[in-house]
Design brief:
The complex is a heterodimer of chains A (274) and B (382). Chain A is built from seven helices and eleven strands. Chain B contains 13 helices and twelve strands. In chain B, the strands form three sheets. Chain B has a seven-stranded mixed sheet, sandwiched between helices. Chain B is globular. In chain B, 51% of the residues are buried. Chains A and B meet through strand 7 and helix 6 of A and helix 10, helix 12 and helix 13 of B.
Chain lengths: 274, 382
């Protein structure tokens, strides 16, 4: 199948277009496919989502020419069961963390090197372990502030640190004595926060960042909760227009997909435009 | 795809499907429209279905109320009991900590909004309700004991006759959510003597969205039906009967009555084989729940060092399994069932539910175990 023919990619372009019409300014689109497990290596999901991210990038360049800049990234699942470890900091795995030079499985390296769109040394590589450790730091910092967005539920053995979205509350972290454990939404929100930081570092004059992120449908809850939680954990100097478009694969090939998104407009933008 | 998620839902039996298709043509009229022959035909067919479903659980057909399934039945019973007894003061309900969320959530809702007290009984390591705790929990204002028959995650069976006896000795109503038991093992209301039973057709090769509330206390439900309307189902559950769905459920019940002895014997063999192979492949596997007093089609096990949600993600195009991982839950909490059994976070995070059915073969189980093993070996921490 020609990837450009995939129905969902044109739906994503429509969403990008609606965001770009709203914020017609210096825009960077960050595309993240190729999510793979550190132990397992690249599977069909990783290969197909990275291929789709490249195909979508080509469609965007064709449509917007030089008006939009693209950048690519990959998130490595290196958490394993450490996800439930009651520890403040998890030891890093053997691979380099959060570095553009990190080694990737050969299948993914080959896709990147065959793409004319991507410079390999510019691909941002993120690690879930690092995100988890950083999420704990972010949450601790927020708790120290006067006004915390969190609610604290005292359980028998620990405290649950929760956020409330429109309908439900969900756990961001657990505190047992001095030990904090970050939960999945906290890891995802930290990851999105780190993307904003890295993109802003690379493109200093950007005023609008669009993150397009491919995930497995079974991760939808934690990903959308993480997206929601970003506004709670991001730093005040990160008040920049940003949108997150999540693409969820129901299968490994993208035949069954769900696309949803959230737009955040900065205070500066709102003051100028409303 | 090897389907091993029969506790979530079963594939519809081909005979059930053809019965339903025929019903759409042959009994299309509203079964409440008894002013004409087509309506009378539909009404007569509905009552025949009621008798068949009643036969499956040894019940009086008058005690069968058709509805949308066990979630509705559970909500109906809990609400109706509270409404019936609340003029007499605080209503106390005893249930267990491992019930399905549909029962726990209606209990919590009523606790917040009505004068209701709920006691959640603990379970032991095998997932069985503690009978001594039940005796201790009894209060003069206890109006209902509601304990599920078989647990959906572990398959553990509860001592229903013992619980029922305690309830009746103290003049307390007894309800059981038997969605996982009925259609997998024989169930007789004459033996167990419940006042209310919740049943879902899709758990035994019938269609989704159809079920039954068995009820021998009509006055309680009539006092406060969940759905008010045209007075169908003797006023206990209004709304036009879903006759094709009900006919499908009746056919599934008929097939269960005819075939269950052979099917159960075959499933017991498969379970013994699977447990043996599981221990060969994974000497460190932990079986969660009770191996003997459990559904013949269900095994819940933990494979140390690998998160089940990750394992299932890698297998999802080849094997259909289930996990109650915290990562998949909307609240980011581990399974309330496994937590209540005292399992630690790591065991819960790596727990997999494997549930098979009438169509499962030995070869399916062998292939599934091979796939689980290969994937596990690639994923586990080195």
């Amino acid at each position: 199948m020609n990837l450009c023919d995939k129905d969902y990619l044109s739906n994503v372009i429509t969403v990008v277009d609606s965001i770009y019409q709203e914020i017609n300014d210096k825009t960077v689109i960050y595309l993240e496919g190729g999510h793979f497990s550190h132990n397992f290596g690249a599977d069909d999901f990783a290969i197909n989502t990275l291929n789709d991210a490249i195909a979508l990038g080509s469609m965007i360049i064709k449509k917007y020419q030089r008006n939009i800049k693209l950048t690519y990234g990959i998130l490595i699942d290196d958490l394993g069961l450490a996800c439930s470890e009651d520890s403040c900091t998890i030891l890093p795995t053997g691979t380099k963390q959060d570095s553009t030079g990190s080694e990737l499985p050969s299948e993914l390296e080959s896709i990147l090197s065959n793409s004319k769109l991507i410079k390999r040394d510019k691909v941002l590589i993120f690690s879930e372990r690092t995100s988890k450790n950083r999420a704990i730091d972010s949450i601790k910092k927020i708790i120290k502030k006067d006004k915390s967005p969190f609610i604290f539920n005292e359980e028998e053995t620990h405290t649950e640190i929760k956020l409330v979205d429109q309908n439900h509350s969900f756990v961001m972290a657990r505190r047992q004595g001095h030990t904090f454990t970050a939960k999945c939404p906290a890891i995802m929100s930290q990851h999105y926060k780190d993307i904003l930081t890295k993109v802003k570092q690379r493109f200093a004059d950007v005023t609008n960042i669009i993150i397009i992120d491919w995930s497995d449908l079974s991760d939808k809850t934690k990903v959308t909760q993480g997206r929601f939680a970003l506004s709670a954990i991001k730093d005040s100097n990160q008040d920049i227009n940003h949108s997150i478009i999540n693409i969820f694969f129901g299968d490994d090939t993208g035949e069954i997909t769900e696309v949803n998104h959230e737009i955040h407009l900065s205070k500066k933008y709102l003051n100028q435009n409303i | 795809m090897i389907y091993l998620d029969y506790n979530a839902t079963t594939p519809i039996d081909p005979d059930v499907l053809s019965t339903m298709t025929a019903c759409f043509h042959d009994y299309f009229a509203n079964s409440a429209s008894v002013s004409h022959h087509e309506g009378i035909k539909a009404y007569h067919h509905l009552e025949k279905c009621r008798s068949t479903v009643a036969q499956m659980i040894d019940a009086d057909p008058n005690h069968i109320i058709f509805n949308s399934g066990a979630s509705e039945a559970n909500n109906t019973v809990i609400r109706a009991v509270v409404d019936y007894y609340k003029p007499q003061g605080t209503v106390h309900i005893i249930t267990s900590s491992i019930e399905h969320k549909c029962l726990i959530n209606i209990c919590e809702h009523l606790k917040q909004h009505e004068d209701v007290e709920i006691t959640y009984l603990p379970v032991d390591k095998s997932g069985k309700v503690c009978i001594q705790a039940l005796r201790t929990a009894l209060q003069p204002n206890t109006r209902l004991i509601s304990i599920m028959a078989a647990n959906n995650e572990t398959g553990t069976l509860q001592p229903l006759q013992e619980i029922s006896q305690i309830a009746h000795d103290h003049h307390i109503l007894f309800h059981t959510d038997a969605a996982q038991w009925i259609g997998k093992l024989p169930f007789s209301v004459k033996d167990i003597k419940p006042n209310f039973v919740s049943i879902s057709a899709h758990k035994f090769y019938g269609p989704k969205g159809v079920g039954v509330l068995y009820c021998n206390q009509h006055d309680i439900i009539l006092n406060s039906p969940l759905i008010h309307g045209g007075g169908q189902e003797s006023g206990m559950r209004s709304g036009t009967a879903n006759l094709p769905g009900i006919a499908g459920m009746a056919k599934a019940a008929e097939l269960f009555i005819a075939l269950h002895e052979d099917n159960i014997a075959q499933q017991k063999q498969l379970k013994t084989y699977l447990l043996k192979k599981l221990r060969q492949f994974f000497p460190h596997a932990i079986v969660n729940g009770c191996e003997n007093q459990s559904l013949p089609n269900t095994i819940n096990f933990s494979l140390p060092a690998v998160k089940s949600s990750t394992l299932l993600k890698k297998l999802k195009m080849k094997v259909a399994l289930s996990s109650a991982s915290a990562c998949l839950s909307s609240e980011q909490k581990p399974s309330h069932v496994l937590s209540a059994m005292g399992l630690d976070d790591k065991i819960s995070q790596s727990a997999i539910r494997l549930s098979f059915g009438n169509r499962t073969t030995l070869e399916d189980l062998d292939s599934a175990l091979d796939l689980i093993y290969t994937t596990y070996e690639r994923l586990k921490e080195h």
